[in-house]
Fold:
Amino acid sequence: MTRVSLRQFVVLSACILIAIPIVAQTVTGTLQGTVTERSGNTLPGVTVTARNMDTGEERVSHTTEAGFYVISYVPVGKYRVTAALAGMGEQTKAGVDVGLNFTRIVNFALAPQMAETLTVTAEQPRIDTVNGEIKKGLTSQEVIDKPVAPQQGPTAFLNLAETFAGFSQNPTSGKDNPTASSGSSINFGAGTRGATFQTDGINNDDSSENQHRQGVALSTIKEFQILTNNYSAEFGRGYGAVVLVQTKSGTNRLAGDVYGFISKNKWNSVDYFAAPGAHLPPGDREVYGITSGFPIMKDRLFGFFSAERNAPTGQLVSRRDVPTATDLAFPRLTLNNDTPASRAFLDNIISRFGGLTPNRTDLGPRVYEANVNIKQPDKDATGRADYEMSASHHLSTRYQYSSQVRTATDYIIGAGVEPRRRISVWIGTPKNACRHPGG
Structure:
């Protein structure tokens, strides 16, 4: 029997994934800069090495005759960047933060016969000086620090856009709901149907409504970014904002979190301006989740998984129009349609209202208001693996499963529905992000 090594298996999997056409490409950042002498003369042939401080993976490049180097397709994270040349010593800059779709400039000035390594802690610049894209972003820590209503579950990631200047609220009720045809909540002046979405470089658009197809749990986001203008043709399709989400991966350190959120209507107060005697209907919401990143093979193979459950139960206020006594007194059928079958059909429809009469005529002549029972469990789970095949090749694969069930009773017989929505997505790294050429 033929035995296949782990390396052979991973390489074979990479080839299969590469063979699949994948057009989205922006899942990484870029490092570039110049290396000079202290006098200002450029230095060719300098070896520039970027080592990820969390995973140990390395990228290597060499300076050109003009002293320029570039390291493309660098995974998002913090790096220790070193420039070294025989006879000129070396210089190291630690804590260099490479962001999503961001070009980081790191310049070096070497002194002849430098005998020690100079370590400089670098801070992340807020402006990309290399290209003209108008973009705004949040790191994983900024995502967690931002107050976002946890009851929205994986859809809450879209609320991060409210942080940025130029955001406009979607005035349509039911936003981010494909069944409501209301468009996305992402609106930066180009309308709610102009946005396009990517998760880990893969298109995440709903095929008909230009909304996001699948949510992302906040605790799994490594970086969140929105491009609002001047972005390149690789993003395509949308004429409005582009929403990029890069998820977390495992590292050499075991790390993760466990979180929970519980809300009960009985703990909340009634709106100050509510009508006298108004009260909140019974309702509970429980959100639980866990994430974990871990090494499988140090500096080579890493794993990450997450799971989240968002389960609101209780009652919601529902308003419906019901027929009035005056409506029922009118003739229901024209002469040619007044048949026993037609009368039986209309009687059946009217009977479903159960004799209800309007009780909120202050809102309309036919409005009836009552509480309905709901149960809406949402589940989301992800698994991700990253393999550093060599200094030039990196393989990443991610699987996500999402489930939504909307159960609600109704006081109109037959009106209650239970829509179900389940999505499974398998993502493989785009082929040009799998290769990291030096230059």
